[in-house]
Amino acid sequence: STNFYVANTLPGPTNFVGATYTGTSNNGSNVGAQGIAFTTTQSNISITSVDIPFTGTGSFNIQIKDVTNTTVIANFTTASVTGSGTIPVTVPLNLTVVNPGSYLLIVNAVLGSIGSLGYSTGFFPYSGLAGTFNVTSGYWFGPTTDNMYLFNIGVNDNCEGLRTAVLATINPPPVFTSLTPPAGPSRTICGGSTVN
Fold it and tell me: Are residues 89 and 54 in contact, defined by beta-carbon separation less than 8 angstroms?
């Protein structure tokens, strides 16, 4: 018998990181190269929500991408939401940053009648989760001081709960007798083969 240990992974408290929308500027429904740049020094960070100022009704496709805006790391399409312009709407997300590093959070596409996506000047960096998650700039075809569309990002780290010992008993395999080939010293049983 051997002791093994098991634990649940539990989400930590949500931190809200990033700029607060303060502007009236909008960029229509232009998407694909607009969002924010961020870094994390911790694995398994969950991005649970963003505030987006917009008009109309529809869904957002939001992606975590590499810093060149070419490789998709994670992808999520939101439920349908309705915006009223200069008052940002909190949009639930379900994205996970598995590995520490530098990334972009990009509004890749909009569905429905979404328009007037808002942006305003940011004062970077913004830090959360005890400094392990940082919004470093806006992104508009490259780093910018304009915070593009995504404000007040909800993030949490996934913490391991208490470990509990579990006793595992490993029983020896049962004794068997083969009919074909006959039992004897030259008999070999290989993985994936059968013996009658």
Answer: yes
Q: What is the pTM of this model?
A: 0.78
Q: 52 vs 2, 60, 73, 120, 172, CA distance in Å?
A: 52, 10, 21, 11, 60
Percent helix, strand, coil in the chain (nearest 5)? 0, 55, 45
CA distance 144 to 127: 17
pLDDT score recorded for residue 184: 60
Helix (H, G, I), strand (E, B) or coil at 124: coil
List phi, psi (to 5°) of 129: 50, 50
User: Residue 132 contacts by C-beta under 8 Å, 6 or more apart in sequence?
Assistant: 40, 41, 42, 45, 157
Question: Which of 22, 55, 40 shows the shortest CA–CA distance to 105?
Answer: 40
Q: What is the DSSP string of 156-188?
A: EEEEE---EEEEE--PPPPP---TTTTSSTT--
Distances (CA, A) of 77 to 66, 81, 111, 165: 18, 11, 9, 39
pLDDT for 170 equals 74
